[in-house]
């Protein structure tokens, strides 16, 4: 996975930075609790393809969503 490419990638939902999990081959958005799969070295940035994280992996707030509710 190219580090420069990785630095450019943001979550399509919240535009937050993604964390690259090399072992799982996933790009994780801890704000949305989604893990985007990397297939053949290509990140699949589709929320419908992403894995839902467990509650313990997820952060309570999202950068673009302050003042919600
Ligand atoms: Zn996100």
CATH class: Mainly Beta
The dominant shape is globular
Beta content: 15-25%
Ligand set: zinc ion
Kindly report the average pLDDT value.
85
What CATH calls the topology is N-terminal domain of TfIIb
Structural class: mainly beta
How far apart the termini lie comes to: 38 Å
* H and E string: HEEEEE
Number of domains: 1
Major sheet description: 5 strands, antiparallel
The proportion of residues forming helix, as a percent range, comes to under 10%
Which CATH architecture would you pick?
A: Single Sheet
Number of strand elements: 5
Low-confidence stretches: none
Gyration radius (Cα, Å) is 12 Å
Structure, explained:
The chain is mainly beta. The chain is 9% helix and 25% strand. The chain contains 1 helix and 5 strands; from the N terminus they run αβββββ. Bound molecules: zinc ion. Zinc ion binds at residues 11, 13-14, 16, 29, 31-32.
